[in-house]
Design brief:
Mean pLDDT: 96
Structural class: alpha+beta
Number of strands: 4
Shape: globular
């Protein structure tokens, strides 16, 4: 397998974690999102992903896009260890946690949105930082409430799930953009617990071959 990845991309970070947990062998193909205007806009990459975003996972049979869909495909294709609960109601709860981050927090703060704020709307760095922090805090408040109801060692009781896989990259980004996490003790606890595992450590941005 080939994972087209950018070291700081939280969407590819999610996939690296899941691939490591499943012990699936893969090669990293770096796609630099900033250098020379962004390699994701090149014709060869646009052919792989018409959205011009990372990640792309080349399975050898097909090229898959959209990290949330790929995470589900990985869990369906590589059954051990399972990253979704066994019963349908619990699976829906875990998917809700995933989507809170993947659909409501991350899209407002990814590189194309921040770049648009800076370049097209002429938003200064301070205002852009405020924008970023607002949406992370807003989402984490809801996520923290869900964790109070459902978490144990992990987001869903004591089972490692795709909710954890989705959460950890968002916490990394929050720390990078200096979001104050004091009011989110459960988020912090789960982050610290997950980062003790090799699958998470080895997937971290600073451990990637294209890290700057």
């Amino acid at each position: 397998m080939k994972l087209y990845s950018y070291w700081r991309s939280s969407t590819t970070y999610r996939l690296r974690i899941a691939l490591n947990i499943k012990q699936v062998t893969y090669d990293i193909i770096p796609v630099h999102l900033v250098k020379d205007g962004g390699e994701q806009f090149s014709p060869w990459y646009t052919e792989l992903n018409p959205q011009q975003r990372v990640p792309v996972l080349d399975t050898g049979e097909s090229c898959l896009i959209q990290s949330m869909a790929i995470l589900e495909w990985l869990d369906e294709t590589y059954s051990e260890p399972p990253l979704l609960p066994a019963d349908h109601l619990s699976r829906a709860q875990v998917r809700a946690m995933m989507q809170l981050i993947g659909c409501d927090i991350h899209p407002l703060n990814n590189i194309r949105v921040l770049k648009y704020l800076s370049e097209q709307l002429q938003v200064d760095d301070s205002a852009k930082q405020t924008w970023y922090q607002h949406w992370v805090i807003d989402g984490f408040r809801a996520f923290e409430t869900l964790l109070k109801r459902h978490s144990g060692q992990y987001c869903w009781h004591d089972q490692l799930t795709l909710a954890d896989v989705t959460l950890i990259p968002q916490v990394y980004n929050a720390r990078r953009f200096q979001v104050e996490l004091t009011e989110f003790p459960n988020v912090t606890k789960i982050y610290n617990h997950c980062m003790q595992h090799a699958a998470f450590k080895n997937a971290s941005p600073d451990a990637q071959p294209d890290a700057i």
